[in-house]
Amino acid sequence: MLSYILRRLAIAIPTLILVSMFIFTLQKILPGDPALALAGEERDAAALEFIREKYKLNDPIYEQYLAWAGGALKGDLGISLRTNQPVTELIGQKLPVTIQLAVMAIIIAFIIGIPMGVLSAVKKGTVFDYIANIVALSGLSIPNFWLGIMLILLVSVNLGWLPASGYVSPFIDPLRSLETMIMPAFVLGTALAATLMRHTRSAMLGVLRADYVRTARSKGLGETVVVIKHAFRNALLPIVTMTALLFGELLAGAVLTEQIFTIPGFGKLIVDAVFTRDYAVVQGVVLCTAVGYLLINLVADIVYFLLNPRMRSVL
Amino acid sequence: MHSDADSNPSPLLAVDNLTLRFSSASGNVVDGVSFSVSPGETLCIVGESGCGKSVTALSLMGLLPMPPAQITAGSAMFDGKDLLRMPRREMAAIRGNRMAMIFQEPMTSLNPAYRIGDQIAEVVLRHRPVTRKQARARALEMLDRVKIPAAVKRLDDYPHQLSGGMRQRVMIAMALANDPALLIADEPTTALDVTIQAQILQLIRTLQEETGTALIMITHDLGVVAEVGDRVAVMYAGRIVEQGSVDDVFIDPQHPYTLGLMSSIPSLSKREGRLTTIPGMVPTVDTMPPGCRFAPRCPFAGAECKAAVPPLTDLSPGHAAACIRAPLEAEAHFDGAVA
Ligand SMILES: Nc1ncnc2c1ncn2[C@@H]1O[C@H](COP(=O)(O)OP(=O)(O)OP(=O)(O)O)[C@@H](O)[C@H]1O
Ligand code: SF4
Ligand SMILES: [Mg+2]
User: How far is CA A221 from CA A67, A231, B55, B81, in A?
Assistant: First the structure.
């Protein structure tokens, strides 16, 4: 088990290095002079040169990269060109907000998507299955922003039940935090639930046809035991893989959702940084995302490993 | 309709006129099948691939997916109750308990996620008032009985750690764990290596003698019939065309299809020698000929064969065939020539 994790980590490291080189280079190639962006109104040559020197923008690109990567290893991702705050500090502030949103959204997605997927597979071809699929399809085709805005209009503006925006840390006021987060988490969660439901359904349809499910029935087991213990247990493997792949969708959805509900999270940080050409922040954020992606996949691999007896004995 | 109630005064299972179809096809996949099994007896059902053997067995176990399958007629009395009209709960109480089944596909019939000991214990726990510990002890006992070496260690193995033959032994252990009165074995050796086939067959026979369970052995292999069967039912295109004691049917086959099978008995050493030497093709469900379904391949066929379905008729006590020409002349043999 440990050797397996170590091996996965060993693959993760070169991946991270490649990703970091890629984003770093890409930024340098892209048009737009950060010095110009920083200088603002003052466009005289001396001021620009001063800025370039200060931020080492004149050094060869590999030196810039090494300096940045070296810092990153020590937890120093540079200084935001815009706010003058250390990038790590910015990320440290914004990341927990997004993690909270993401975790709540995933929980909502699981609670809705998995039982719906299991049920519609078991009741394949029935009215329930059709309705569930129509709901899921609508969930996929209704844009997040539209659902978000409608919810704000209905729940916040008309009914006044929940705040339309803002953020409170759960460590300060858990209840209030839940109140501010539940709507965005719902918007994000239902979109994921639709995907999750469709994948759970197809995974379940596959295992329900399996010979061992027939064997389970031949033992006289009740239908619930057959579906949950014998079928769903095996459908979990593809579902876990799927969930890890949802990470990208989750992040993209979070960026959008945070914009709609004006939540000061990671997504907002990314958007602001890109618009203001705040290179250090963009690099830090992308690196952080890549690490997150690799971590999620590692966790998914470990869960997969724990769920699959075949893997356990191979290693 | 023929009924062999007289040859079996108190059968354990009496199937009468079982008829079923799939919604995807127009014809009956199983058409008026009747047979019975006495306690402790072995009935072999033999026939070519696709003739409806598995479907028949699955319908008795209540394991046919319905829809698409649909039982349109017939009854199957077991322990005095009709299996085909039994509420789901009642059926589930019998399955794995009074009646059990082993399948054609040992590689995929065990759940890959659970240890084999637990999978055997599960069926014991389901039907008997025992503790987990007792169920596990029973699982161990059963692994011993099916001659799995080092059973104690194997108890915690996962299916993928076992060979096909070993997995089929586990399936047998599971099926017999609650001492069923009837065991249905659907081509239990077809998927296995030849040497393993003989071992598994031998094992089933030994266990049957020890436990006194009745056995329905489904096979496409007359060699298997000769080895394990008391009685045999020959199936062709969803119908039973000949039925009788193994001796009667082997010594004096009365249906042209049975004759054809005899002349193409595959030797046990050659699995590829499946029953393919009768010229022509098995009709598909959608292209069933009227009257005798064997007529297109039958060297004795005449116009009257297509007029009506020949009923399964007793020729001697306990020996019946569904052919208008039966009893065949002593000289009749299958020369493979189709007019
Ligand atoms: N789920 C299904 N839907 C439609 N047709 C089916 C289904 N299952 C079986 N059939 C059809 O029923 C017929 C009988 O199939 P069955 O599996 O009983 O054959 P078999 O005698 O067991 O053959 P084999 O020796 O290959 O196992 C076949 O023609 C098959 O195509
Ligand atoms: S009824 Fe006619 S076609 Fe059918 S088996 Fe007998 S002789 Fe052949
Ligand atoms: Mg079959």
Answer: 64, 12, 21, 20
